[in-house]
Specification:
Order of helices and strands: HHEHHEEHEEHEEH
Structural class: alpha+beta
Strand order of the largest sheet: 2-4-5-7-6
Radius of gyration: 27 Å
Number of helices: 7
Largest sheet: 5 strands, mixed
Number of strands: 7
Distance between the termini: 82 Å
């Protein structure tokens, strides 16, 4: 449309239209610029996290590996059985820390890349608790901690490996922040909404300024008084993500000097059981259930 052919009102309308188009273009450019800046900031943060993670992994693995190599050398030339036994105990502790770190790294990586399908089986939660306690024995003995397990739940249908790693991390966290010679307690219960697991420790608790960050990746809360090791800062983030993958939740509260973590999981039906997972391939299969399936 030629402007010379417009009367005054049409000219004003045309100018107004073009201004609106211009304004819309500017708003679109501002929006795209904002998104670009946000993307660049996230890319920068991702690069920083990657660099920090690699540094963390290097230190976390190099230290126990160095200790283990030196201990192996000492065992080879040791004639004192009692000293060899002490060295073997130290090796067990270092290997446990290393294996535990790897479990969390693999879990975090699988979550990151979407390799996190649930595989539901029937388990006895009390047995998994004792298995986790046995695994973390070096940490528990180091602080002279006592353990208590209570369960009103005989069996439950859940992804056993995810459930086990959740419990390991909550217990490990309890070990790290407990006062020496106190009690770690684990309990399992069921209500109309599903299953509940509680892991409680007696320690210094979680300060208010740290409450929002404790479930973040690589966040390491340490007062320097109760925690003997640094770790990767992955444990509670892995707990949160695994709970959510199983449609569950994780929370905590403080009561009378104790920190209590509560994990809740919805009740699953028999149809959710993962038969294709393979009988005998999961160490936490309920033995009676497996036996009944084999008879069937």
């Amino acid at each position: 449309m030629e402007i010379t052919q417009l009367d005054d009102q049409e000219l004003l309308n045309e100018i107004s239209r073009r201004f609106q188009e211009k304004r819309a273009s500017i708003h679109e450019m501002e929006f795209m610029t904002k998104k670009l800046l946000e993307f660049n900031e996230k890319a920068k943060e991702a690069e920083e996290v990657k660099t920090y993670f690699l540094s963390l992994i290097k230190n976390e693995f190099n230290n126990p590996m160095t200790v283990l190599l030196n201990l192996v050398k000492k065992i080879g030339g040791e004639n004192d059985p009692s000293k060899a036994s002490r060295i073997a105990t130290m090796m067990h502790k270092e290997l446990m820390y290393l294996d535990f770190s790897l479990k969390n790294i693999f879990a975090a990586s699988e979550i990151e890349y979407g390799q996190n399908a649930n595989s539901y089986v029937r388990v006895r939660p009390e047995e998994i608790a004792y298995e986790a306690i046995s695994y973390l024995e070096p940490m528990i003995e180091e602080k002279l901690l006592r353990t208590e397990v209570e369960s009103s739940v005989k069996t439950m249908v859940i992804d056993a490996q995810k459930f086990y790693l959740i419990l390991l991390n909550l217990l490990s966290n309890g070990c790290e922040f407990s006062h020496p010679s106190t009690t770690l307690s684990i309990s399992f219960s069921k209500d109309d909404e599903g299953y509940e697991m509680r892991v409680a420790n007696t320690g210094e608790g979680i300060k208010e300024e740290n409450t929002k960050q404790i479930f973040n990746r690589f966040y390491k809360y340490s007062t320097g008084k109760t925690r003997p090791s640094q770790g990767l800062g992955l444990g509670l983030s892995v707990v949160k993500e695994l709970c959510e993958l199983m449609e569950g939740t994780i929370d905590y509260f403080e009561e009378e000097g104790r920190t209590v973590f509560i994990a809740r999981f919805p009740e699953k039906c028999e149809k959710d059981l993962s038969i294709s997972h393979g009988l005998g391939s999961d160490e936490f299969f309920d033995s009676e259930f497996v036996h009944s399936l084999m008879e069937f």
